[in-house]
Write a structure and sequence with these properties.
single chain, alpha+beta, two-stranded antiparallel ribbon, 11 helices, 11 strands, about 55% helix
């Protein structure tokens, strides 16, 4: 039996290694030079079919005409998806079944057949007893993602189904991963070529390897960033407490000058008015300069941000590199999650992210992006309502 390979590459392409020949002169194909083809999972099977056909010699039909051999792709089908004909009954058997289904009741000591009173119940019971492989009955597709790592099964138990050339290669591999291999059938070849199906671990090998390297870099920088962030928050809290103390001191001074001196309220009233007006003017200038809404939260965030920048520079922390690593980590995580959903498997990201600090850092950025999208969407809806 001819055997090929389907490998993953760091560039997210799939590398198909397949031995090609139209007439097999030898039994083991050891002297057949294998052919390597690079394909993308989103390309259709027809593209791979044309690549294979371009490497094959023509075959002669029964009419003596030369043609390009046809190429078909077959994947192992689940035994639960096999379509079998239902049982047919003759008219005599149907009548006997109907008579047997009639219910009997006693009236004045005599037993008489009264017909089927609870037809829905009878129908349900009969439907449960029938074979689940009747024609037209629906079922749920199940995927394992094990691929070539799955359990061995006998060739006699395998059922291969031909797939349409318009199917994407990624979808075909996902369905074929329920078995250990799929078959490439070439017209004129004495036997099929079996290709091992890559499992979820195979498909995401390079992605998970890159995620581990990125997580290691993030882990080294996460400790420095956390220390700087905590110091910046402590400094901002001290500034906030200083502002609160200033407000209390201002209130105490106004109170003392108003009630304990000869100035009185007649003098202090215009002073407090001018102070309030000056605060309003300073707030407007703040808005013009920083382009931010005037609030205690925005002032606190600005203080923290400036303090963080200063501490990052002192500690030699590269903020741009950190943001690039976190963005790359989230992109790799998203891609692995997508492959996991295609294979219908659960992937524990913490095994590849290695540390809780990395997981929290990636999650924090994702949450901020979600909040930004929600805020932007809310503003767009408000603008539409105004229109």
């Amino acid at each position: 039996m001819a055997v090929g390979k389907l490998l993953t590459t760091p560039s997210r392409l799939l590398k198909l290694i397949i031995p090609l020949t139209t007439l097999d002169k030898n039994t083991d194909r050891k002297d057949v030079e294998p052919l390597a083809l690079l394909v993308h999972p989103q390309q259709p099977l027809s593209y791979l079919e044309r690549l294979i056909q371009s490497e094959l010699p023509t075959v002669t039909t029964s009419r003596g005409e030369e043609k390009i051999p046809a190429v078909h792709f077959r994947a192992e089908d689940s035994p639960h998806d096999e379509i079998l004909p239902g049982k047919k009954q003759t008219p005599d058997q149907s009548e006997e079944q109907e008579d047997a289904d009639l219910e009997e009741s006693k009236f004045d000591g005599k037993t008489e057949k009264t017909g089927i009173l609870n037809r829905s119940k009878k129908t349900t019971e009969v439907a449960k007893e029938e074979s689940p492989k009747a024609i037209g009955e629906g079922s749920v597709e199940s995927y394992s993602g094990l691929g070539r790592e799955g359990p061995d099964s006998k060739d006699s138990d395998k059922t291969f189904v031909r797939w349409s050339p318009s199917t994407e290669i990624g979808d075909f591999i996902r369905d074929a991963a329920r078995g250990k291999e799929f078959a490439v059938e070439i017209e004129g070849a004495p036997e099929q070529i079996r290709i091992g199906v890559p499992s979820f671990n195979d498909r995401t090998h390079y992605l998970r390897q890159r995620l581990r390297k990125t997580s290691a870099k993030i882990m080294d920088m996460a400790t420095i960033k956390r220390e700087c962030d905590m110091a910046a928050h402590r400094g901002a809290q001290k500034v906030a407490m200083g502002g609160a103390a200033s407000l209390v001191g201002y209130w105490a001074v106004v109170y003392w000058l108003t009630f304990n001196t000869d100035l009185g309220w007649d003098t202090m009233e215009p002073v407090t008015y001018l102070v309030g007006l000056s605060t309003l003017i300073c707030g407007y200038l703040w808005f013009l300069y920083h382009n931010r809404e005037v609030s205690y939260r925005s002032a606190l965030n600005l203080t923290i941000s400036r303090r963080q920048t200063t501490l990052y520079q002192k500690a030699g922390f590269d903020l741009q590199r950190w943001e690039a690593l976190v963005e790359e980590g989230n992109a790799l995580r998203k891609e692995i999650k997508q492959v996991a959903s295609e294979y219908d498997v659960e992937w524990d990201e913490r095994t590849d992210e290695k540390d809780e600090k990395v997981t929290e850092a990636l999650k924090e950025v994702r949450d901020k992006q979600k909040q930004g999208k929600k805020g932007k969407k809310g503003k767009e809806e408000d603008d539409d309502d105004d229109d």
